[in-house]
Amino acid sequence: MAGLEDLLVEELKAIGAEDIQPGLRVVNCKGDKTFRYRANLELRTGIRVLVQMGQFRANNEQTMYNRLRDIDWSPWLKKDGNLWIDASSQSDRYSNSVYLSQLFKDAIVDQFRDKTGERPSVSKEDADMTFYLHVGRDNTVTVSLNSSGDSLHRRGYRRRTGGAPINEVLAAGLLGLTGYDGSVPFVDPMCGSGTIVAEAAMIATRQAPGLRREFGFQRWPDFDAGLWSSVRQDALNRIQKPEHPIVGSDIDELTLNLAKISLERAGLLRHVELRNADFADLQAPRPVKEEDGGLLVTNPPYEVRLKTGDITTFYAQIGDTLKQNWKGYTAWIISGNQDAVKSVGLRTSRKIPMMNGPIEVRFCRYDLYEGTKKEKKKEE
Ligand SMILES: C[S@@+](CC[C@H](N)C(=O)[O-])C[C@H]1O[C@@H](n2cnc3c(N)ncnc32)[C@H](O)[C@@H]1O
Predict the structure, then answer these.
(1) Which residue ranges form the domains of the chain, and what is each CATH number?
(2) Ligand 1 atom closest to residue 298's alpha carbon, by position in its atom list
(3) Would the keyword Transferase turn up in this protein's UniProt record (predicted)?
(4) Which protein residue has the closest C-alpha to ligand 1 atom 16?
């Protein structure tokens, strides 16, 4: 995801990736099958783990088709299996990704038919194998197998959400950008359906995000069930109790109930305290040692998708509450409404531009000093 590449590099290093090369919205690296299984299970800021099968230049469709057919796809196709193809392009020469996936499908299906006399079936919903084709600006074609299957943001704990949920990968990325590692109290005072709080609880408990879902590689012909089971067991063995409070709160009881259901599904409910409160009335959990402070990360309504009376007054109230009730904390707010953010009226110590789906957002940090190191009531 754009803006999270550096975090992904750190995550990849931690699970033993080699030859790591970050790009824009992609990080290339090398690793074996154990690494592939761990990457799918453990990465918090990755969207999908692709296994590259070939890379070539193609300035026209015929060359592309021929080169795609030259690659031996047979080890990856089961006789009764279903396949699916996704494609994307940054090239002006190939702007229609549906056409590209059709061309790729033809190359694979024609090769399979020539070898076996049969036609593999194509189905998105029940795909055993998902192939991925990407064309770069310079017509470089990269073809891969998608070992994740469904996007990794689908952790498997969220079924229903409130009005404007944040993507799980973005939530984990925001927490990564704050440096959160579970060593201070954590609060999301407008937690909605609980995505940020669930990701925080997973970080604090060292719980791998993919423990409750399946992956594409589990249906591959080379699937190693024994290896997968030991990779999962290692991840389960690493789970620990959080050392500091993790609190999710929301003014809306119904939405909070969705957070409860998600946290329960993720096996995290016992580690999180849920409160039904207006942010203005919420008490900050105190750290074990006063000097440790605490971390508040929240995604308030920003009017694009949720309506709240006067958004400027609402954000000014957020600023007042932070100043009065959250001394000693570091607060981070993600918002797509820059005018509203200005009315928070506290000095930002960092501002990170990002995208929340199609919406341009800023992730702003406020250091809410104790005592005399005052917050300047001035926007930078
Ligand atoms: C954008 S949503 C948060 C979505 C959340 N990050 C998720 O992934 O589901 C904003 C939330 O702020 C809550 N909210 C609005 N005003 C509030 C207030 N004064 N105090 C606490 N929560 C409030 C809304 O009920 C809503 O659930």
Answers:
(1) 5-146 (3.30.2130.30), 168-213+240-367 (3.40.50.150)
(2) 6
(3) yes
(4) 251
